[in-house]
Amino acid sequence: MKILGMISGTSHDGIDVAVVDFQADGTALTGEILHTDSTPYDKALRNRLIAALPPADTSFAEVCELDTLIGQTFAAAAETAIAAAGPVDLIVSHGQTVYHWVGAETALGTLQIGQPAWIAERTGTPVLSDVRIRDITAGGHGAPLVSYLDGLVLGAAGGTPAALNLGGISNMTVVRGPDDVTAYDIGPANALIDAAVIATGAHPQGYDEDGRIAASGTVDERLLAVLLAEPYYRLPAPKSTGKELFHADYVRQAVAASGGEPSPADLIATLTELTVRTVAADVRAAGITTLAVSGGGSRNPVILAGLRAALPGTDVVLTDEYGVPADDKEAIAFALIGWCTLHGLPGNNPGGTGARGGRILGTLTPGDGPLRLPEPATEAPHSLRLHRRN
């Protein structure tokens, strides 16, 4: 079964896609990665999206228009992927998160936009979307859903492995055994760094390419102390967060509270060190022996060097060593969720999200013809082995 997974993450810089051909042999699942790609958002669309995100005020009219424009952009990316990899049985579109509503103890709602009907109309293929909300209705955080893939991939690894994804937000999945998985959002990874780059105009693309800006700056210890005092870091897992908390105004308020005026380079160096410190503290507390890193932040040498220096007893590697391309892991994870849904299987990991139990995820939009689902699987997979097509 060939499934196309698509996501634009909390860095809201573009759409990652992965086409995976899944085959089950009993409880062992294999996935051949046929195609991966990344499509940047048009600059005007990205700027419009950023302008509408919390804490900005927006309107239903703007949400409706962005829902259409992002849906059309996802549709074009899906069409391009299918042209490269051939027809697929299902498209899974995570869409673009614009709000994640977290209460005192758990998530209460979540909103991803990018109308899936545009994708179904353009490709003629069924689309699974809105994949997070069912986990939330079952008492979970709807995140990190990638923990389901992590548990299958790392379940047989020795020691105490963990998967770390460094997107806009950093999240970690700790795998103490095939049936003992915990996961949660640690805090900001690229979210505050990108916000500072955009606010200061430090890079025209709005991110710190190869960590060069951070490498040229000096950490402001007073500002870092203010940032580390954030109460979120001391909340117990499971927990989730997003740009509703960690955004440009948050940085401005922290700078004001520190009483300093760091240069753009020093500010970005400090925010990069914040990611290193918060992640390293949680990795040490969990006794992690191997940390498999993915996401855009895995390409930032300042973050990786900082983690390796802070964690001398932990082997810090990229997820590629486990067959999962570091740049494409989340798109692959949503393709896996689609395979689960079509086979009547839960696609969440309750230990990772805090849900009361496993749930079949998502909402299906038909393609050109009637929906034809395979026979439900009698047992969930216990392992997943991924490999690229030769």
Automatic annotation (TrEMBL):
Keywords associated with the record: ATP-binding, Carbohydrate metabolism, Kinase, Nucleotide-binding, Transferase
GO biological process: 1,6-anhydro-N-acetyl-beta-muramic acid catabolic process; amino sugar metabolic process; peptidoglycan turnover
A Pfam cross-reference name: AnmK
Binding-site list for ATP: G9, T10, S11, H12, D13, G14, I15, D16
Segments of this protein annotated with the region Disordered: 351-390
EC identifiers of the protein: 2.7.1.170
This protein's record includes keyword Plastid: no
Biased composition (Gly residues): 351-360
Domain of life: Bacteria
InterPro entries from the UniProt entry: Anhydro_N_Ac-Mur_kinase, ATPase_NBD
Reaction equation(s) it catalyzes: 1,6-anhydro-N-acetyl-beta-muramate + ATP + H2O = N-acetyl-D-muramate 6-phosphate + ADP + H(+)
Molecular function via GO: ATP binding; kinase activity; phosphotransferase activity, alcohol group as acceptor
Pathway involvement of the protein, from the record: Amino-sugar metabolism; 1,6-anhydro-N-acetylmuramate degradation; Cell wall biogenesis; peptidoglycan recycling
Enzyme class of the recorded protein, top EC level: transferase
Entry function: Catalyzes the specific phosphorylation of 1,6-anhydro-N-acetylmuramic acid (anhMurNAc) with the simultaneous cleavage of the 1,6-anhydro ring, generating MurNAc-6-P. Is required for the utilization of anhMurNAc either imported from the medium or derived from its own cell wall murein, and thus plays a role in cell wall recycling.
Family note: Belongs to the anhydro-N-acetylmuramic acid kinase family.
PANTHER family on file: ANHYDRO-N-ACETYLMURAMIC ACID KINASE
Record NCBIfam families: PRK09585.2-6
Protein name, per record: Anhydro-N-acetylmuramic acid kinase
Organism annotation: Stackebrandtia albiflava
Organism lineage string: Bacteria, Bacillati, Actinomycetota, Actinomycetes, Glycomycetales
